[in-house]
Amino acid sequence: MMYLKDISKNAPAYSERNESAFAEAVTVYCSAKLESRYKKLRDYIKKNGGSEHVKSFKDFLSANTDHADRTSMIMTSRVCNMYYKEVKDKNDGKVKSSVLSEFLELIKKVGSYAGSMIGIVECARNTQYRSLFSNSIVIKRNPDIINN
Which residues of 24-43 are buried (b: 16+ CB within 10 A; e: fewer)? Predict the structure, then answer.
């Protein structure tokens, strides 16, 4: 919350230090689930490396990251978020094959972390919402786990 308050206080100015620190804190907090989804995506890519949609994603990943960033989960999440939006826009939101649909679902899940962070930061940088961020408090609790 501290990072979001600072981002909001300085809005609409861009604060790379706060935004990077916020992204790192969220990544650490969500690391177990993000890592699990990231691993599923990597396994799918290894298993289906020769398919056209995987080659397309690899090319997109290479074009949008440098070599060092390709192993970073959060950078991969950012690229997945961009790729998912681009593919959905090209196909008017419709996916033709079930194989591509499965792959895009993995891309969507990994990309949702970066997408959510981007949305939260954009909201915090919006001066219209400044009072919401300056007056907020975060209370950490254990999650309610419901076993079905």
Answer: eebbeebeeebeebbeebee
Q: How far is CA 53 from CA 66, 90, 93, 98, 146, in A?
A: 21, 13, 16, 12, 37
Place of tokens 């090209």: 90
Q: Are 75 and 65 in contact (CB under 8 A)?
A: yes
pTM: predicted TM-score of the whole model, two decimal places: 0.76
CA diameter of the chain: 52
- Least confident range of 33-42, 44-53, 123-132: 123-132
Closest listed residue to residue 80, CA positions, set 56, 99, 96: 56
Among 86, 76, 1, which Cα is nearest to 37's?
76
Task: Please tell me the distance from the alpha carbon of residue 5 to that of residue 135, in angstroms, as a whole number.
Answer: 9
Encoded amino acid at 43, one letter:
D
Which pLDDT score is estimated for 109? Answer: 94
DSSP state for residue 143 in the 8-state scheme: P
Q: Give me the residue label for tokens 């997408």.
A: 115
pLDDT-based confidence at residue 13 (cuts at 50, 70, 90): confident
